[in-house]
Amino acid sequence: MGTSLVMIVTAALAIPLGVAAGVYLEEYAPKNWVTDVIEINVTNLAGVPSIIYGLLALGLFVYGLNMGQTILVAGMVLALLILPIVIVATREGIRSLPQSMREGSYALGADQWQTVSRHILPSARPAILTGAIVGLSRAIGETAPVITIGALTFIAFLPPSPVQDTIPFINFDWLESPFSLLPIQMFNWISRPQASFHVNAAAAGLVLLSMTLLMNSVAIYIRYRLRKVL
């Protein structure tokens, strides 16, 4: 449950921001030294060790903004981790489109936003989706950033459910809940001497692998469907 909820926050933050940043840099940003510096930094950030993001989140979110060691903070730090991946994938998807698509849209009277929203983004969706899933697949197995911000190594409760049976039927209390993740549980169990904990760690590894394969399978299916439509 902790892994699933953290991935929901990560996807909700990283994908819209990453796509918006990629579209801006590729379609709207002026070509000058400022954008060149931004592009170099975005590319370099994709290779920064994950522990650096954990230290950044610890200093900024946990201590600086006093947001606590919660699911929301974990999702934010993992969103920062995969944000460069989503930005680069979005830009590469947009760059792969022919210039004639833009020229044809402008020739029919569309402005730049209509061209981007109705032609560029729909055509680049397969590449954007691939980048998003690759980023989430990396985030789901990360331990260093979430350990740095204070993820629990032992947990005996579930976070509050995002869905409730009373109006408005949506609950956001889970965002402020302490959490643990499957990789942390695996590390905790495998470090114990008892064989039963090693069995638990292997089972958790299968669950984590299944979640990763499920995300990739959904992405491949959606990408296939989108390419058939296009």
UniProtKB/TrEMBL annotation:
Protein topology in the membrane: Multi-pass membrane protein
Domain ABC transmembrane type-1: 1-219
Coiled coil: none
Gene3D superfamilies: MetI-like
Subcellular location: Cell inner membrane; Cell membrane
TM annotation in the entry: 44-63, 70-90, 201-222
Keyword Cell membrane: yes
Pfam families: BPD_transp_1
GO CC annotations on file: plasma membrane
Keywords recorded for this protein, A-Z: Cell membrane, Membrane, Transmembrane, Transmembrane helix, Transport
GO biological process entries: phosphate ion transmembrane transport
GO MF annotation terms: phosphate transmembrane transporter activity
PANTHER family (UniProt xref): PHOSPHATE TRANSPORT SYSTEM PERMEASE PROTEIN PSTA (PTHR43470:SF5), PHOSPHATE TRANSPORT SYSTEM PERMEASE PROTEIN PSTA-RELATED (PTHR43470)
Protein family: Belongs to the binding-protein-dependent transport system permease family. CysTW subfamily.
Protein name, entry field: Phosphate transport system permease protein PstA
Organism: Iodidimonas gelatinilytica
